[in-house]
Amino acid sequence: MNSPMTDPADKPRIAVHKFSSCDGCQLAFLNLGEALLQLNAQVEILHFLEAGMSDADAPVDIAFVEGSLSTPDELERIRQVRAHSRYLVTIGACATSGGLQALRNLDGSHDEWRDAIYARPEFIHTLKEVQPIAAEVKVDLELWGCPISSAQVLAAVRALLFGVVPVDDRDRVCLECKRQQAVCVMVTQGAPCMGPVTRTGCGALCPRFGRDCYGCYGPSETAQADTLARRFAGLGLLPDAIARRFLLINSQAPAFLHTGQVFYRSSTQDQPAGDQDD
Amino acid sequence: MHDYLPRAALPQLIQHLHRHGYTVLGPQVVDNAILYRPLADTDVLPTGIEQVQRPGEYRLIQTDSPRQFSWANGPQALKPLTFAPRETLWRSTLQTDGSLRFEEVLADARPTAVIGVRGCDLAALALQDQHFAADPYYRQRRDDLLLIAVDCSHPADTCFCASTGDGPAAEADYDLALTELDDGFLLRAGSDRGRAIMTALPLQPSREDQHRLADSQHRHACRQLRQLPAFDPAQLIQQGQHPAWDTVADACLSCGNCTSVCPSCFCFSESEVPELDGSSSDHQRQWDSCFSEGHSYIHGHHFRPDTKGRYRQWLTHKFGSWVEQYGRSGCTGCGRCISWCPVGIDPLQVLLQLGREPARTEK
């Protein structure tokens, strides 16, 4: 574990914070195996509740933030995290684009849903709309994915240790899918694959197992979402099904939101509950 | 002339190659497509499999034909075997005195034989041979490649090799070429290695009617639905402001699949993959595409930020400036860019549009 490049006295300090999320992206650290020991030799982990370290207000060089802003107290807490951190890195779809819980933004029916679901809704203190971290504070780097991979974490940490800007790979899943020699599921099966508009980083995991990408890494650069939606219609998908392709895990990413909403509205226009504002 | 191999004796060809140390790759049905995979025996060849290929669509059909090569092609030609989708070129290692040591990383190449290679793909390989002539990573895999072609008897609707002059029969650059008939194969050698293999096989004299059948089959395969439109490559490069680019950009996903499946496309990017402790770093290269953001990035600026510019780059290079670079167009008529385009764009249609309407001169 002796690294010639790191003086233990000034090891960068990191924190891993959790907001509204499933905790799955933090597993990208915990699942590192031996690399977790290497990481621990390179950095000092001050706050990481899932791993047992607790010091939320310690000043750190890198704060990794999982989860979306879904409750009033989270709005306050993220400002504290920002104030204590040199670099703030979001990890995963929730932190970066709102995640699944941001689906509540689509209908503007937060209160109705809350009252219908919870036995004692007066104990629930949630925001009417879920926001990604960048909506509230400055974010230095976004790691997309649901969940993110360990490789993304290590690449980001390594780049920051070198003092260089981490590579932000915004290429499409398709490019990696072809490098992996996976067979295109859209062309051979007519499957509504999101690969052509989705950011790489997963290693084309789903297509390699014969199923269509569902966009969990969010939009790629120049995502031609409208064009792909037209293709989905050509493959026989109804508007509601097309909306669900784009409005799933990364619904608040503008490229997906715009296209998804077009089909979401057209699929619910006959339902009075659809577009009500509170 | 002893040049006929009964189908029942085809396993002996595989066995001969295995005995001589080759890893043998052959076409097999994997994940709804024809892929080259390690071939233990001939019983895994795609017997009776035929294809329907249309723009954006690729389907396999099971027939009761005894033939094992009655399909046009799969999603990849020979390209992944010689131009690796991702590989480490060199590694830099930090020394105790703070200096860096660089070492070349050449993967072990094993002699590999590929059965079922098409004429279009051999022509594309010849183009890649030109491009990667001085590339040691490419060369070591290429030099160890034994190529056994099978003349294409069932071109797909997306094929147009007859019009580019690269098929349907294998014309050059093979070691051994087979013409498949219902009950066996007519063989011809293209190299000393191929001739040596022929002497080791239980060949029988071929009959006149078998050659007539092969000729008729070839003529039939030459009648293809699509053909490359006539155009002037130099003129194509001047068509930068043509409205056809806007039309195709509206339909194009910029996914780059056309370039990834193209057997002659050779673009790559390079990146550093450091160890976490910073003690060493692998310098890798991987397939890139002129449809990616990074392809047109120079310090601080993307000079092809949109799909229109990227599609124009691809088409004008492949069919236009390629001629200047390599003495011929980069297209060998395999039709993969048509079949494997998720939205079914046909570049031949774009070429037709570019040729039909006058070039616009505004802007």
From TrEMBL, chain B:
<feature type="domain" description="4Fe-4S ferredoxin-type">
    <location>
        <begin position="241"/>
        <end position="273"/>
    </location>
</feature>
<dbReference type="InterPro" id="IPR017900">
    <property type="entry name" value="4Fe4S_Fe_S_CS"/>
</dbReference>
<feature type="domain" description="4Fe-4S ferredoxin-type">
    <location>
        <begin position="322"/>
        <end position="351"/>
    </location>
</feature>
<dbReference type="InterPro" id="IPR017896">
    <property type="entry name" value="4Fe4S_Fe-S-bd"/>
</dbReference>
<protein>
    <submittedName>
        <fullName>4Fe-4S dicluster domain-containing protein</fullName>
    </submittedName>
</protein>
<keyword id="KW-0411">Iron-sulfur</keyword>
<dbReference type="Pfam" id="PF17179">
    <property type="entry name" value="Fer4_22"/>
</dbReference>
<keyword id="KW-0479">Metal-binding</keyword>
<keyword id="KW-0408">Iron</keyword>
